[in-house]
Amino acid sequence: MRLGFAGTPQFSVAALDALLRSRHRVVAVFTQPDRPAGRGQTVNLSAVKRRAVDLGLDVLQPASFKTPDAAAALARLELDALVVVAYGLILPAAVLALPKLGCFNIHASLLPRWRGAAPIQRALLAGDATTGVAIMRMDAGLDTGPVLAARELKIGERETAGSLHDRLAPLGGELLVETLDAIADGRAREQAQSLFGITYAAKVTKAEALIDWREAATSILRRVRAFNPWPIAETRMNGAQIRIWDAELVPGMAAATPSDADDASRPPGSVVAASSDGIDVACGRGALRLLRLQLAGRKPLAVPEFLKSQRAALSSFASP
Predict the structure, then answer these.
(1) I want to staple 109 with a disulfide (CB 3.0 to 4.6 A). Which of 100, 117, 119, 291 is the partner?
(2) In the chain, which stretches have pLDDT less than 70?
């Protein structure tokens, strides 16, 4: 089939690579416009654009598909299908109808669970045991189209958003090619999404990364893992920002409250113990062992290295 590809972040690259290894032909790549980023406002190319340029593919970067010019550019390609993977721009219904066979999307969840922008992070925050990828025919709704294929993946005990992303991306690319082959051969079957079990994965914000030690240790741990590698869970100690890259539950204290401890005066956020094994912090229920920390402007450090310079300043962590 003659395909167009629309994607922007690193998650999309695995799908583009999978298509380029397939029997189908990618004739153009759409990605979001280049934007300045960082303190120096250096122009930042999307991961998809970098990959497409390296491969010599034609790249188009409309600011919106709501203009006649953008729609006309897509129409001129005379595509059999458009593949959309984390593109980040809304495709109006008239644009979705331009490719002969339609537009198809890889979504990083088992629809209808976690429709929306951040399915990987929301699955981890919710403590889901499994997730997966789904190949969906796009319609005018938010991830509401019929599903052509899905593949489940078990979430590991120490899974972070980064590690889960890296496992789901190639899985999605593999399933996409299988699905496109089925479409080309007339074997594909579509199934409407269930009306039950619908959840929405809202976009992650930096404000969500601020830890409230009054929460249960299990909830805080989910936050640490869901927000790695961005925006990174953070707290305050003596007014200074500290980011938490890795943590684990303190064994035997998953259900304990501060009042269960020998010293009932230890409120949530109190440092219970500090050693080369980690920094144990009292939570609203249970205790969390911090394993890798980062002071503002410094690099992340494992706890033994962190304590070499910060043990004397170690005190309670603040809740918002």
Answers:
(1) 119
(2) 38-41, 254-265
